[in-house]
Amino acid sequence: MTTIIETKKKVQLEIDGKTVLAPEGATILEAARAVGVRIPTLCYHEALSPIGSCRVCVVEVEGVDRPATACNTQALDGMRVVTRSERLFNLRREVIRMILAHHPLNCSPCPKNGDCELQDIAYEYDLAPNDFGSYSIKTEEYPWKEFSTPILDYHPRRCVLCGRCVKVCKEIRGLGAITMAGPGALASIQPALADPESPSRCVSCGECMRVCPVNAIEERMGGGKGKPWETEKTATTCAYCGVGCSLELNVVNGKVVGVTTDDAAGVNKGRLCSKGRFGYAFIHSGERLGKPLMRNEKGELEETTWTKALTKVAREFRRTLAEHGPDSIAGLSSARCTNEENYLFQRFIRQAIGSNNVDHCARL
Amino acid sequence: MAKVILGSWRDDVTDNRGLKKSAIPEAFKGLKEFESGNDILAFMGWDGFFLFDRDAPVVDMARAYVEKAQEESCGYCTPCRVGTKVVAEKLAALADGHGRREDIDAIRSMAAVIRDASMCELGHTSMTALLKMMELMPEAFEEAVAGRGPVKRGNYRAMATAPCIEACPAHLDIPEYVDAIRSGNYYESLAIIGRKNPLAGVCGRVCVRPCEFVCRREELDEAISIKHLKRFVNDQIVSYVSARSKPLEEIPSASGKNAAIIGAGPCGLTAAFYLKRKGHEVHIFEDLREPGGMSAVGIPDYRLPRDVISSEVRRISEIGVKFHYGKRLGRDLSLSQLETEYDSVLISVGAHGSKSVGMEGEDANPEGYVAGVTFLRDLNLLHHIGEFKPPVGTRVVVVGGGNVAMDCARSAIRLGYSKVSVVYRRTQKEMPADHEEIEGAMEEGVEFLFLTHPVRIDAEAGKVKGITCVKMDLGEPDASGRRRPVEVKGSDFFIECDIVIPAIGQSSDFSFLSSGSGIETTKWGTIAVDDNTMMTGRDRVFAGGDCVSGPAALIDAMGHGLRVAHCMDQRMRGEKMSMPEAERMFRLLKTMSLPQAPVNRLGNKARCRLEMRPARERTSDFVEIERGLKPDEAIREAERCLRCYRIALFATEE
């Protein structure tokens, strides 16, 4: 059977004098990127639908006095767009100044220092701390609320209210566990309630933290363990379940201090669950088994060698097989093993032992 | 009449400070006082400002205005969230006498950024008046930074409004609840609706939606489907709450006062809900055996299923409102008895009588001649229990062009009559019925005879045999702006039929009012009430709904319910009665009817259409026709809202 793919209708517009042929329904930002015109953004995130809250991506469209936000304005046929002008530069600069008027400027203690999108854009627009006065909202004035999960800390002063966290929770996780609540300059990110009696819908996945451009949402188990430039990132596969999400172990001085993801990598495209993202503390736990243990005559566990331990296991299997037959033995393997390991394991139980009693804990 | 000293609206400047006199804008011909004895000194709005008094506190007023804008800012976009805060603080410093000259420039440049870069209309409009004042009266701001101490302070009444909020008789905060849907907070959205409207499921289905007719999105593409969004959020939460089947908590009657409400229609239910929430004991007396008034017995189930009304009424009774069915004023109850037993009484009996068409043979009341309201009432009360006896015959003629006529015609189709016709004396364009209703009726096979006026019912042996009509022509426009139909001489023709249903209007039955009761009726057959307090000529007796306004829309009756509850509460607490301040402001704004600049934005998003059951399938039953929005459709629709919030501020003498 052949499938006919209908070519999507195209619209033709002009961006900074360049002619662009964009698919119908594309935004100005998408059309601009397609021809290599860069429009600065802050709240925009590729994995999410446009938010349009920061107003940094303003552009001018011929025939409309008010600047439009490129991220959420549809590119229309015959549109003429200007992305660079003195007016736009000033507007963007003023908007970033407004964000900075609220955001703490002592970057050095911040773990995001050096990997911060706000820092980057402030640098691009040549803004230094003495360029703006702040306004007087004290931290204690914020309607402080416990965040949706104890695993995360929320810093209302650092927060730039871009709204990415709210979007990711709704669009990617499908939960809508957090919301932005005003009034005005006191707006902050707060847990959303399904109704006044329902508990938080949060599942502690940390997706909100992942998309936060400024570290306003921070992992409680982290902090102070290394700066972005000291961190070595090792790409690996999550060992928790069979999905096989790609992740990066953040290693500082040979120690895993956190988990990040690459938005483009793997089957998960940057997403993780709470185990993949926060379940790394076991790596350096003193309680991990490092050597095989075997019970002595008194029934106490005692350190031993692999040879001795495996010999004992093999002997006990043979004895059980001889006395009770193969059906008396069952195998249960782990979802944390790889596919290949699990394959070998079932071959072993079926062929070496001769039993069909083999299963797998895929519900870890 | 207020005299404008200085003002500007959409860059149209009126300046009477010097010798040269400008004309006084029409808008202020009826404006003088905020309330009796309290003059308006100045007004600040979305496209400008007006000073009516030379001593109006300009700088302090600007401060109050921007502080209100900051309070109303939702915090979503940067310029409005941060900018209005900074500008408000700088203006406060100016008003306190701590301001510096450079603050004035900072205010001006930041205000321009807020105006140009904000997301919604609140940010787009909240700086217009301030910028214009700084342009026309720079000296007022210069003086504030001259080191002469604090500026003159004033009294202000400010509120955030929007065209849709102003158009809604209950003044629902539409952008706010639409916004909550956009963010996926359905519970919060329904709570916002519930502040003004306890019948979201009913309104979400049958409201005539004055809000949508003023929606400014229409300028870009199409108006927002506000009604469908209301239904969506109601149905989402109702199914969620009823799945847990947990009743609402009863509100204690803490005030020690009690109120009697006659009639469980939209006005009575709304008033009952809010009076109960204010802590009064509330009893509703209803003639029929079920609640809802006209919304229950005047609207067929295919438009408004009865379980929607009953679930909303259940919520009202759960909070502790007591319902007494089968009680009719004048038959089972008397006004004087209620006055003795209750601290206040509300008459909201509706308009359940039918107006006659004025055709020959009507008074003989032949068999087959059934008033529209009677037909619908019997159908609604009896059909679902299988006891409805439809008028005998095969051909039906409905007279009228409103929603009641459509309800009668479409119900008749569903009852299986072989031919159903509507006669209306003007054209389809002038029909007061919703166009969806007209189109729906056409799809279902209702025949429309426009420019046709019935003059005589032809009966034989006390039974309808047909109806004689004349053709009409449209003449000059009348007071309502619609062209008046004029009879075409000698154009009589006869339509053979067995049933004639007149549906051209309703009237109230006031037989319970004895002369000397102190309650007056008007020449339009309605109860006269004080416009300010909704009280009748008799102390502690109030009236609202169709029996005061004449037959009107559901939402009009609910608006009455809200207002009357406010004044009944004041009366029972022994306070001075007055209309809510917001209502007063809405009226002032209506008097001024100031235009708003065109929406200066890009749009290209069509409105969500509701899925309907196909005509072939739906004409054989009374099951609801419209299917509600799906969550993704609702969110997409909510995202289309431009949030046309705008701040209005009156500076008053006291």
Structure description:
By secondary structure, chain A is of the alpha+beta class. Chain A has 4 domains: 10-100, Ubiquitin-like (UB roll), CATH 3.10.20.740; 145-192 and 199-220, Alpha-Beta Plaits (2-Layer Sandwich), CATH 3.30.70; 227-288, Single Sheet (N-terminal domain of TfIIb); 293-360, no CATH class. Helix content of chain A is 23%, strand content 19%. Chain A has 8 helices and 16 strands. Chain A has helices at residues 28-34, 86-100, 117-124, 164-171, 207-211, 274-278, 306-324, 339-353; strands spanning 10-15, 18-23, 58-61, 68-69, 80-82, 152-154, 178-181, 188-191, 217-219, 232-237, 246-252, 255-260, 293-295, 301-303, 331-334, 358-361. In chain A, strands 2-1-5-3-4 form a 5-stranded mixed beta sheet, sandwiched between helices. A 3-stranded antiparallel beta sheet of chain A has the order 10-11-12. In chain A, strands 6-9 form a two-stranded antiparallel ribbon. In chain A, strand 10 (232-237) and strand 11 form a beta hairpin. Chain A is elongated and about 90 Å long. The mean pLDDT of chain A is 87. Chain B is of the alpha/beta class. Chain B folds into 4 domains: 6-160, NADH-ubiquinone oxidoreductase 51kDa subunit, iron-sulphur binding domain (de novo design (two linked rop proteins), Up-down Bundle); 165-248 and 596-639, Alpha-helical ferredoxin (Fumarate Reductase Iron-sulfur Protein, Chain B, domain 2, Orthogonal Bundle), CATH 1.10.1060.10; 258-352 and 510-576, FAD/NAD(P)-binding domain, CATH 3.50.50; 354-506, FAD/NAD(P)-binding domain, CATH 3.50.50. Helix content of chain B is 37%, strand content 17%. Chain B has 24 helices and 22 strands. In chain B, the strands form 5 sheets. In chain B, strands 1, 2, 3, 4, 5, 6 and 22 form a 7-stranded antiparallel beta sheet that branches. In chain B, helix 18 packs parallel to helix 19. The longest helix of chain B is centred in the first third of the chain and has 19 residues, at 78-96. Chain B is globular, with a radius of gyration of 28 Å. The model of chain B has no long low-confidence stretch (mean pLDDT 91).
